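Quarterly update from the structural biology core.
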Amino acid sequence: MSTHEGERPRWRGIAAKVTTVLACLLVLFALVVPYDLERFSLEELAKLPIEGILGVGLLLLLPGRARKIGAILGGAVLGGLLLLKIMDAGFDLVLYRPFDLVLDWPLFKPAVDFLDVTVGKGAAVGAVIAAIVLALGVIALVTVSVVRITKVASRRHVLATRTVRVLGIVWLVCAILGVPVASQSAAALAYSHATQVRDGIKDQEEFAKEAAIDAYRDTPGNELLQSLRGKDVVVTFVESYGRNAIDDPGVSATLTQGTARLKAKGYESRSGLLTSPTAGGGSWMAQATLLSGLWIDNQQRYRNLTTSDRLTLNGAFKRANWQTAGVYPGITQAWPEGNFFGYNEIYTANDLGYRGPRFSYATMPDQYTLSALQKQVRDKQQGPIMAAVPMVSSHAPWSPIPQHVDWKDVGDGTIFNPMAGNGAPPESIFGRDPQQVRADYAKSIQYSVDNLVSYVEEYGDDDLVLVFLGDHQPASIVTGEGASHDVPITIVARDPKVMERVSSWGWNDGIKPGPQAPVWKMSDFRDRFISAFSDKRRD
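Predicted structure, tokenized:
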């Protein structure tokens, strides 16, 4: 018994030391780990954080009870900072930027919707619960670790105080000499996000000033778009069709062949590049940017825009007596903000008569969407139409991908039933080889572009003007780090007078923009387009 009783304190002592070491490592990790996963390395984790040195020093100066309260508060703040780094890392992987504490909370709903569609409602609910548990667990664990370190330091107050002084001197010397050991990244991150909060609050006022400037607000309909009278103008957004796609050999070949196919049918095409306000997601913000002529790079701007009376490109056509339609296969719920854009008719997924299978996130294949555009909009209207059509087949996770069928066989979409099981299951994107993901992405872009070209071949005439563009670049799993926000844009028409109107734009011949193609902000397109096709130009 005496041996057993004597061993118990020894094992407790070992466990206590191990616990203290783990607490120190967790706190160090929280302070120095970068949110940018490209910078994650052992060298980064081995840095000496000034925030930790100052934090322990400050806690040692406080009296007993105040010290405990300070440790709890400091631990909670540090836990929140680590959680913020995790969120920054996630946003950087998908949207090429860190999380915005003011403006990005509404983006979590589309993320949950994406999981719901691709891996099921149960998995989506599980992911939400796991995220909440992770958030609370991170804050709690870091707080407990800081309290643990504070208790140990308090029991060895003299040694801890000397250690803090020595480490402070070492940090200062390293900082002066430029030795890459001294770290203040946690403070820099906190300052960056604090500045972000300030800028987010100011952004609403800045957006109001931008929105107040509208060259076409009061322009009568008879002075708008005269050079397109009698034309059917179709603007299609190709999901995730970014600049990086055109460098893929398969996509490049599809674009080159598409140019030749269109020329064989008497069509000319010109292509350039636009800088999108978003990347990796947020299609609705890119679409709103192009159609409104305002830079919509966050949900706050989007809400303010869609509750305003801003003249959209669709609205300009409507004012000039076109029948305007929005064909939105990706909209499956109520969409009250759709009324803002200036459509006579809006066709959502439930209005398009599709009876075939979903293809992962995509409610229907792009070919069916274009077929519905023809049958339900162009064939039924007596006068010219202007339609905006966001296509969804090239939305992540890019598997499975439908196959093109003869247009006369599209029907109600049931012909696509056998294709839904082809390819990797959509949920496998989270564990699939990145090289395979990139290959699937390229195939989805080829599919979408090929269907647009085929649509023109099948249903085009002298009065069709097609504009197609990407809404944003895909996630960084496809593009890699440091990708631009640029997307291709193309205009296709048989009437040479249409191309004459855009000759000053300097766009390349064909549907593939070249390396030196002009790059505009996406928000510039509305005014440039209206000006080019109106008699009173405002270039």
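Residues 213-532 form a domain with the Alkaline Phosphatase, subunit A fold (CATH 3.40.720.10).
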